[in-house]
Amino acid sequence: MNCFSDAQRQISPKAYNLIIVCLLGYILVDFVLFHWGPAPECENFALDVAKAHPDLPDGASQQVVNSITGSEEDPLCKTALGHLKFAPEVPIDKAWNQMKWIGAPAYCKVKGHLIESLDPLNNFRRGFALKFVSDVEDKTLVLPWLYGTKVNLNTKQRRVYLDFGANDFRTSVTWFLQMYPCDFTEVHAWEVNPGLFNIPSPGFNEDTNWIPENPHATRVIQTPKVSDWMVQRIKQYSTFVSDDDGKGSVNITRFMKEELKLAEEDTVVVKMDIEGAEWPILQRWLNDPEMAQIIDELFVEIHYKHPSMLDYHWGQFTHTREEATQLMAELRAKGFFVHAWP
Ligand SMILES: *[C@@H]1O[C@H](CO)[C@@H](O)[C@H](O)[C@H]1NC(C)=O
């Protein structure tokens, strides 16, 4: 037997309507309170940095929040002063205590895009505190800030990668060929030490490994090596990269303009690690607006004298770390999308 009468089981239509109105109202209030307005950019990461380090000085957290927006309207960003506005560095004794060594964005954008804040206290190296060479030379910190991920550099016909101070083939040329989001049509690598840079011998034909709709992807016909087309794109030089033409050295500014005939229409990515010879070249580029137009993105190891770098034989250099920081900021103010190369 049914214990409930029909009258008890029935809910009036008025009650139904009230429930629906309440639910809709809740959704509306929640939307206005929590989802209204533009989506913040990278907000959580920067706020996390501030939260994770409550010992940062007063106002520093706010600086992180300000840096999220990456001001460009600020007239200060036309000058080095704006580009010297750092998000607070993670204290050096805690610099390693994070999952990814990615810095906060700088206060000023470059070419309309966010770029990492300069980090002189860690010698521009997020992993410096650990002191292992592999951490000091870790390059993952630049990955989120690559210009090639913000702008499609593959639409240009000529796409050039220049490596000044290439060292071993696997040091930076391989890194850029694998990690940089551009299919370079030309690679020019300078290395004075003839024993260091060796282009792998070609002779691998990818066509022989290609099978349409291969049902056995793991069944390799020939172990992949370097293919002819890739090696044909790489050119090797054994002169010193310099500001001046001389015996065994080349004026790289002249070479880029007159011999390689690089222009604004080309994609040009430059990596420079030339043991102090970068100073006169970069100082020239500061006063050459053409170079800021030609170079899309610049990675440079700036060498300076500082007690914390003596283990790396940097005692021989004369400029200070403050001068190095100033130079980076000036380059950014002049429109160079420049990163410190570890
Ligand atoms: C290097 O070349 C540039 C561009 O051609 C030129 O302006 C500059 O004077 C040269 N450097 C020196 C030291 O002559």
TrEMBL record:
Q: Keywords on this record? A: Membrane, Transmembrane, Transmembrane helix
Known InterPro entries for this protein? METTL24, SAM-dependent_MTases_sf
* Tree of life domain: Eukaryota
Q: Which residues cross the membrane?
A: 15-36
Q: What PANTHER family does the record point to?
A: METHYLTRANSFERASE FKBM DOMAIN-CONTAINING PROTEIN-RELATED (PTHR32026:SF27), METHYLTRANSFERASE-LIKE PROTEIN 24 (PTHR32026)
Q: What is this protein called?
A: Methyltransferase FkbM domain-containing protein
Origin organism is Physcomitrium patens
